[in-house]
Design goal:
By secondary structure, the chain is mostly beta strands. The strands form three sheets. Strands 1, 4, 5, 6, 7, 8, 9 and 12 form an eight-stranded mixed β-sheet that branches. The protein has a two-stranded antiparallel sheet with strand order 2-3. A two-stranded antiparallel sheet has the order 10-11.
């Protein structure tokens, strides 16, 4: 018995034609419910130690710091970067490799759950099917990209060529076994997988992959784009029926033989 489930995640983007100033935005997908801020475990994945604090534009900034805090008590370049990043968001003239290096490394650190557990970000939209439960797919990064905040609106700008990093997970609800009476039922999982992960616009498919972690590529985009990721999850269950040829209901025992189908 096979049951499929398709899950979607969408993101509205605007392709930058040139002249954009990029604010670095690192992501952290290994901790599904982590709060915004600079990761306490520090640089990883080969990211430069001095540049690492500058990657995080979603941290809480301490404003109105005096010049003395930057001139008198700082003993190293990494310490200066940490203090600067704690005061403001630092723009870059072009995308920096450290952001992609961090995102790619963090994506590989994502550890999906077992067949009985779905590991998901706090705000993921979970969907249920007959046997597939808590299924989702989430876009965790579009790179390179930057977000422009103007008033109460935000617009994410991307380059014409780039990557979309995606995670997906789910769990499988296996029906309870029926182990009483002359006819008994046993359920188990035969196989299950994230069969396809597809990146597409409103008009065409851009790339495809499979599995819990995907890096999907796009090329030659322009104008406003609605990028959608669709993941298809399948689960095949094994249903075994055992029937007693001579069942004594008084004592609840099979006095004949069990036939399995």
């Amino acid at each position: 018995m096979t049951t499929p489930r398709a899950i979607n995640a969408a993101l509205m983007l605007l392709v930058a034609s040139g002249g954009a100033v990029f604010l670095a935005v690192g992501v952290a997908v290994a901790e599904p419910n982590s709060s915004p801020g600079i990761p306490a475990d520090g640089p990883d994945y080969g990211v430069n130690e001095t540049r690492f604090p500058l990657l995080w534009s979603d941290d809480l900034d301490q404003q109105n710091r005096s010049s003395e805090e930057f001139e008198d008590t700082i003993s190293s370049a990494p310490e200066f970067s940490t203090r600067l990043a704690g005061s403001t968001d630092v723009p870059f003239e072009k995308p920096i490799e450290d952001v992609e290096r961090w995102n790619n490394g963090d994506l590989q650190d994502f550890d999906p759950g077992s067949e009985k557990t779905s590991v998901h970000p706090e705000r993921a939209h979970l969907e249920d099917g007959l046997y597939i439960r808590d299924a989702y797919t989430s876009i965790v990064a579009v790179q390179p990209s930057t977000v422009l905040h103007s008033g109460n609106t935000s617009t994410r700008y991307i380059t014409p060529d780039g990557e979309v990093l995606v995670i997906a997970d789910y769990r499988v609800r296996v029906p309870d076994d029926d182990t009483s009476g002359s006819v008994r039922h046993h359920w188990s999982i035969a196989d299950t997988a994230v069969d396809t992960v597809v990146l597409q616009t409103d008009s065409w498919v851009l790339d495809a992959d499979r599995g819990h972690r995907s890096t999907l590529e796009y090329r030659g985009l322009s104008g406003a784009q609605n990028l959608t990721v669709e993941a298809t999850v399948t689960a095949r269950l094994r249903h075994e029926t055992r029937t007693c040829t001579d069942y004594n209901s008084t004592i609840g025992s099979c006095e004949g033989s069990w036939e399995t189908e």
